[in-house]
Design brief:
Layout: E1 21-25, H1 46-58, E2 63-66, E3 74-75, E4 78-79, H2 90-98, E5 105-111, H3 117-130, E6 135-140, H4 145-148, H5 159-178, H6 183-189, H7 196-199, E7 203-206, E8 211-214, E9 227-230, H8 235-244, E10 247-250, H9 255-268, E11 280-285, E12 287-289, H10 293-307, H11 310-321, E13 347-348, H12 357-371, H13 375-383, E14 388-390, H14 392-404, E15 410-414, H15 423-428, H16 430-435, H17 449-452
Parallel strand pairs: 1-2, 1-15, 2-5, 5-6, 6-9, 9-10, 10-11, 11-15, 12-14
Antiparallel strand pairs: 3-4, 3-13, 7-8
Length: about 450
């Protein structure tokens, strides 16, 4: 967790004040959502999405963000009963939300591995028109054969091939989005006769991944093209982001770690002919508020215990150990056995960020022994360690400090309940940011998502 005292004081009062950018993440289908909360509602009911979106818009967030799962997760060969509640199609939900919101951006996660450029570009362009220029696309490459089994091509692509496909996918999509003149150009031409070729360009792409020849079916949207969001963190992912992304959904939420990531990725842009402001970096963060710091810490502990039940703690450990640990006491010490090396993990359908389970286990044992942590305590440390814990004033000051000192351009806020997880943040933290003059008090009328984020048109 991060408190206001954990970040260094600003070093200069002469720097231009940066505006904080915030996005709202709809609670995921995982253990970080407290399903036993009294305000918990259905994960698939449109009323839940409506409350979430309209509340985020009340808080003047730049955009809302939906993840997408292409297959139900499995654990030890069975559907993972700790986190399965269903998830509807992202584009269908965003299209519905376009009708019940007016200003907030609508960003959906969609795979470049299991879609085709022409079809997806058309769907995103449609959303961009329906929403008045508020659409965004979070590109994922989908990492394993487990998901691929749901698709006709089956299997999956190697990591390097996934990024190669994704980069060409985006290039083709951009050709399709740019091939037809804007509505404004068409309106200017409407007074006289003109041929379709005057307004619509043929896309004729032939590359190693795609062969696409045809005319797009829609003119450019009000913002020209949907905003591109990306979350890759590897060397390939950072390179792809520096060439392609306009927003990075980062996991580097710590102050010093965030500054290093920010400096690395922003430092790559000049070589790509891009300005530093053409890419926004928004780490995902959680929060717990209290009237006092002590109250916030206590609420954080209580919430963490709800997020990490005893069975969740064992399941989390099994993902690293690669074997059944059902016989271990979650309130006891870590297993003395070493992780099992296997190509197919005990949990399928969840991204793994570690490549050396044995090293992870050794590090965890050292930490647990030094601090007297049980299995559940340790899992809470890694799976439910809330990013910002404190009073609304403390949290607002910490967010602002990260932005002003180049640890991020803002944050993707993740609540712990569905759909009310952002309510307290909107009510108590947003006014503090506004009072400091670093966060909008109103949307600019008619602004597209690209304009709201301060991205080049």
């Amino acid at each position: 967790m991060t408190l206001i005292s954990d970040a260094p004081a600003p070093t200069s009062t002469e720097r231009p004040v940066k505006q904080v950018h915030l996005a709202a993440h709809f609670p995921g289908v995982n253990n970080t959502t407290v399903w036993r909360d009294s305000n918990q509602a259905s994960q698939i009911a449109f009323s839940s999405f409506t409350h979430f979106a309209q509340n985020a818009e009340r808080g003047k967030f730049d955009f809302l963000f939906l993840a997408e799962g292409l297959r139900l997760r499995e654990h030890k060969g069975r559907i993972h009963d700790l986190d399965v509640v269903g998830r509807p199609n992202t584009l269908a939900v965003l299209a519905g939300l376009a009708a019940v919101t007016s200003h907030i951006g609508l960003v959906g996660t969609l795979s470049s591995t299991f879609n085709e450029p022409y079809e997806l570009a058309r769907q995103l362009a449609s959303l961009d028109h329906l929403s008045g220029g508020r659409a965004g696309w979070n590109i994922v490459t989908t990492f394993d054969a487990f998901h691929g089994e749901n698709f006709r091509r089956g299997a999956f692509l190697d990591k390097a091939d996934r990024y190669t496909r994704a980069e060409e996918f985006v290039a083709v999509a951009r050709q399709l989005w740019d091939a037809w003149a804007t509505d404004a150009v068409l309106a200017d031409k409407a007074a006289g006769d003109f041929l379709a070729e005057d307004a619509i360009g043929l896309v004729d792409h032939h590359g190693p991944q795609f062969d696409v020849t045809g005319f797009p079916t829609l003119p450019q949207s009000p913002q020209g093209r949907p905003v591109i969001v990306q979350a890759g963190d590897s060397a390939d992912g950072r390179g792809f982001a520096s060439r392609t992304a306009e927003v990075i959904f980062s996991r580097h939420a710590g102050f010093e770690d965030g500054q290093k990531f920010y400096s690395d990725v922003k430092g790559r842009l000049a070589a790509e002919g891009r300005h530093r402001d053409s890419l926004k970096i928004l780490p995902a963060v959680t929060f717990i508020l209290g009237d006092t710091e002590a109250e916030a810490r206590e609420r954080s502990r209580e919430t963490a215990l709800l997020q990490v039940s005893p069975q969740t703690a064992i399941a989390f450990l099994e993902q690293v150990w690669g074997t059944d640990l059902g016989g271990y006491d979650p309130d006891g010490p870590l297993p003395e056995i070493d992780p099992v090396s296997t190509d197919q993990g005990v949990t399928r359908g969840r991204v793994r960020h570690d490549s050396d389970p044995a090293a992870i286990a050794r590090g965890w044992r050292t930490l647990a022994e030094a601090e007297g942590l049980s299995i559940r305590d340790l899992v809470i440390r890694f799976a439910a360690n809330h990013t910002f814990v404190g009073t609304p004033v403390q949290v607002a000051e910490t967010i602002n400090r990260h932005v002003q000192e180049d640890a991020s351009d803002g944050f993707v806020i993740v609540g712990s309940t569905n759909p009310t997880g952002l309510d307290e943040f909107v009510d108590r933290v947003i006014p503090e940011l506004q009072e400091r003059g670093v966060y909008r008090t109103e949307y600019e009328e008619g602004a597209t998502l690209r304009h709201t984020l301060g991205l080049p048109v």
